[in-house]
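Researcher: Let's walk through a ligand-bound prediction step by step. First, I give you the protein sequence. Second, the SMILES string for flavin-adenine dinucleotide. Third, you return the three-dimensional complex as structure tokens. Ready?
Model: Ready.
Researcher: Here are steps one and two:
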Amino acid sequence: MKPVDLYARVRHAVLIEGISERAAADRFGINARTVAKMLKFSVPPGYVRTKPIVRPKLDAFIGIIDTILTDDKTRLKKQRHTAKRIFERLRDEHGFSGKITIVKDYVASWHQRGQEMFVPLVHPPGHAQADFGEAMVADQLKTGANTPCWLVFDATFRKNYTAGGFMPTLIMPDLVIPPDWWDHYIFRAPTIEGLAAKIHVPVDALRRTIGNMNVYAQTGVDPQFGRGGNDYDRMFGDPAVSPNPCLGAIDTPPYYAVPINLGDLGTKGGLKADARARVIDSSGQPIPKLYVAGNNSGSPFGNRYPGAGGTIGPAMTFAFVAINDIAERSRARAASA
Ligand SMILES: Cc1cc2nc3c(=O)[nH]c(=O)nc-3n(C[C@H](O)[C@H](O)[C@H](O)COP(=O)(O)OP(=O)(O)OC[C@H]3O[C@@H](n4cnc5c(N)ncnc54)[C@H](O)[C@@H]3O)c2cc1C
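Model: Step three, the predicted complex:
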């Protein structure tokens, strides 16, 4: 098997730089068939799981375990959780009723995957949505793929839900989509194979991903990413869809894809403010007449993004508070003049 970094470089050369497979074979001194194989998978195939693992007792707790293990990475070795300690915390704090062995097995496999720069995509309620972007960057650095990644859906999804700039077909049928958006911002094909060709992703991988998704939609359990495994996820789902409001089948043509690119929408750091929106200096005192709100200020939510409105909400609130404080000072000054 070829090393992962060669995989990444070959994939980057063909999929991002756009050189031909033959040119890639010459550049890296490998066989053209090997290049073709490398393009089929984002990592060496040994890593690709063909059947989802089902862990009925454990699945709902995987997000918690992932968070503990990820947080542990910032701690001294001595302070990190053992599998036994994680099991005890799950049992005592979260009502886990499974056996210690499944926790031990999961923790062992997690540590094995550590070399894959794994960034968990499952978070307990209130955890950062933004970690999706972090995972994209990590994967891009490792494999040269997934930036952009793709939102892939079928006619049923298109009919019922929004996707990027698209409203459901009832409000915004395909016919009214500006012609120059097609094959740039939105892609459509009558078959999965056709869609894969249009968006330049390996057809086998797309078929497998969609196949997995359709199994998860039926069972209601997503062993890969745990979608719909917590209240926060389910809040964004469709309550009319069961067994899992976050998982729908992708099986009704035509098939669509919209690229997902990274962008900034807010910040997680900035000037500290007190409850009157006044900027605090390094000794903890407010700086006279200096106020802060919005992206210039540190978020009251710290480095988390609790959900929609998480940046505009505090920005408006602190701006409102600041203006009231200024008005109050102004009134007090006028009264004392
Ligand atoms: C695609 C997208 C979707 C988003 N969705 C949500 C959402 O659903 N919910 C949510 O809460 N937040 C959302 N956000 C984030 C939110 O919109 C921003 O965090 C928020 O608008 C930031 O407000 P602000 O006033 O701090 O900064 P900005 O809106 O960036 O305002 C800064 C202003 O300063 C001006 N400026 C910059 N430099 C100078 C200068 N030197 N002199 C004078 N003026 C200057 C800029 O032109 C700009 O008008 C989203 C952001 C994006 C991009």
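Researcher: And what stands out?
Model: The chain has a mean pLDDT of 85. The radius of gyration is 24 Å.
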